[in-house]
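Hi Y.,

Following your request, here is the sequence exactly as I used it, all 235 residues.
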Amino acid sequence: MRKLTWLVFVILLSASMVWATTPAFDATSNGTGTDDFSFNHTTGCTNCEMVVITCVSTGGGTSVSGVTYNSVALTEIAPSGGVFINTIRGQMWRLDAPASGTHSVAVAVTAANIASAAAVTYSNVNQSSPVGTPQTGSGTSSVPSISVTSAAGELVVDGVCTSDNITLAVGAGQTKRGGLATASASNGMSEETGAASVTMSWTDTLADWVSYGIALKPTSSSSTNGWWFFSQGVQ
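Below is the corresponding structure, written out as tokens. Let me know if you'd prefer a different format.
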């Protein structure tokens, strides 16, 4: 009688598993002035991104020429020079990997006009490709609103400027993360979970407004794991 013996080989293979970590709120701050001004912001998150909205009350000629955090210049989000309508100009700025701790956000205004700013930092933002395509809008109404292209796993962040002295209220599904009511240059910032198209809206009185929206991209992590089994019978 022949005896059948089974030889079993176990081989470890490399199988890559990748998952995303959704961006998450870290901290917010704001400030205002009638010319150049500054305010402090405190952060200490991992894979951080700073987003700033600046608002200037103007007949058209005044803008923000630059924003720095801890003396590091932020990048202006297109279009250059911002969006202007009638009495208000809005601009959005961002900074990859802002320094941890408490540092100054400095806003440079080209002429003496009422201006304001709100800054928000987020953790878990992809540092190689942090943001999607920006969306802007403007109008004269009581409901500022824009639609932002995004995707699952992302976080949509928006900023709004209005010519009215009012504390703005966010639309359904949004979480307010910043805002300052000031004469003729109020601001607000909020966030909402990413999807194919995300509407970002606010409630205002009838006023001129400018709005920006961007999608923050998630960080990704990976691991290797997996088993492959091979068996063979030998007589």
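Residues 22-222 form one domain.

Thanks again,
Q.
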